[in-house]
Specification:
Elements: E1 3-7, E2 10-13, E3 18-25, E4 33-39, E5 46-52, E6 57-59, E7 67-72, E8 77-82, E9 91-98, E10 109-111, E11 115-120
């Protein structure tokens, strides 16, 4: 049903910036929460940032102050502006959309295919 298409990944130098985009298609109901997760080599997938339909945000501690998440509800699109990138940010970034959120978080969600972000030192 709901499909997520990501774009914006690539190679960037340390200290640089990158902007990721994720658009949801085939959406016939509201997506309460959209977010970004990442998985680095040898590590578990972790939350980068998430945002509710109303604009309430939540960031992982490692990216606070450097990354900014935003969304365009009319376009069913979520963005991740990444600034001051570090080598530790190198990972596959996955878009996530949840139709419910709150106590039902994870019960009805979809994932994007992932986009690779590589930060060179």
């Amino acid at each position: 049903q709901v499909q997520l298409v990501e774009s914006g990944g690539g190679l960037v130098q340390s200290g640089g910036s990158l902007r990721l985009s994720c658009t949801a298609s085939r959406v016939i109901f509201g997506l309460n929460v959209m977010g970004w997760y990442r998985q680095a080599p040898g590590k578990q997938r972790e939350l980068v940032a998430e945002i509710t339909r109303g604009g309430v945000t939540n960031y992982g501690d490692s990216v606070k102050g450097r990354f900014t998440i935003s969304r365009d509800n009319a376009k069913n699109t979520v963005y991740l502006q990444m600034n001051s990138l570090k080598s530790e940010d190198t990972a596959v970034y996955y878009c996530n959309a949840d139709a419910l959120g709150g106590s039902m978080r994870g019960r009805l969600e979809v994932w994007g295919q992932g986009t690779l972000v590589t930060v060179s030192s």
